[in-house]
Amino acid sequence: MDPAAGRVRFEKIYQEHYDAIWRFVQFKAAGLDPENILAEVFATAWEKRDKIPDEAARAWLYAVANNKIRNAIRGKVNQQKMPRQRAGLHDLPVVDDPADAVLEKLSFERVLQALASDLDREILFLSCHEGYGATEIAEILGLKRSTAAMRRQRLRDKLAAFHPATAGPPDDVNDDEPEDRSGEGRKR
């Protein structure tokens, strides 16, 4: 791809998806540096602009953001494991779980904390807030589609007990494309 076309493609991706990726990073990176993480996401997008799939650019960006956030969390945990004086962190507060700070602001905070693990919170955010189906969630989080669909449906069922408006159709009637059940590639 020539440089001018690559720049135009990146600018289009940036303009179309910036707000959604920013919300996702803010949601997941509480207690970290969301501005820096967002910059890293789009720096990666710039570097790999020729490899971003047109039909799934947002999912690709979510996956990159998820990886950048995990790297930042690992880095923070590693710093906390070092003696705090050597690391220069003795005056900084320790944040146990960055997601907890964000959940305190949400109306379903107590419900989510009672029902959901970190992975479940991610699935709920991507499903309820961003409107993704099981297929996209699986791609973003690196799960099998069936695992994402099962966890998403179980969470919907649990939330429905607290708030009936959160109930939705089961994933098997969702507009997501079903998994390939043709049997190709299976041993017989």
List strands and helices in order, with pairings.
Layout: H1 3-28, H2 34-47, H3 57-81, H4 84-87, H5 98-103, H6 109-115, H7 118-129, H8 134-141, H9 145-162
Helix pairs in contact: 1-2, 1-3, 2-3, 3-8, 7-9, 8-9
Structure description:
The chain is mostly helical and 188 residues long. The protein folds into 2 domains: 1-90, Rna Polymerase Sigma Factor, Chain: A (Orthogonal Bundle); 106-169, Winged helix-like DNA-binding domain superfamily/Winged helix DNA-binding domain (Arc Repressor Mutant, subunit A, Orthogonal Bundle). Helix content is 64%, strand content 0%. The protein contains 9 helices and no strands. The protein has helices at 3-28, 34-47, 57-81, 84-87, 98-103, 109-115, 118-129, 134-141, 145-162. The longest helix has 26 residues, at 3-28. The chain is globular. It starts with a helix and ends in a 26-residue tail after the last helix. Residues 101-107 and 172-188 have low confidence and may be disordered.
List keywords for this structure.
disordered C terminus; globular; single chain; Arc Repressor Mutant, subunit A; Rna Polymerase Sigma Factor, Chain: A; 188 residues; 2 domains; ArsR-like_HTH
Tell the overall outline: globular
Total domains, how many? 2
Give the C-level CATH assignment of the largest domain: Mainly Alpha
The chain-level mean pLDDT equals 75
What percent strand?
under 5%
How many distinct helices? 9
**Rounded to an integer, what's the Rg over CA atoms?**
19 Å
| Largest sheet data | none
**What is the terminal separation in angstroms?**
44 Å
- The CATH topology of the largest domain comes to Rna Polymerase Sigma Factor, Chain: A
Alpha-beta classification: mainly alpha
Query: Regions with pLDDT < 50 over 5+ consecutive residues?
Result: 101-107, 172-188
Q: What proportion of the residues is helical, as a percent range?
A: 55-70%
Listing every helix as H and every strand as E from the N terminus to the C terminus, the arrangement reads: HHHHHHHHH
Number of strands: 0
CATH architecture assignment name of the largest domain? Orthogonal Bundle
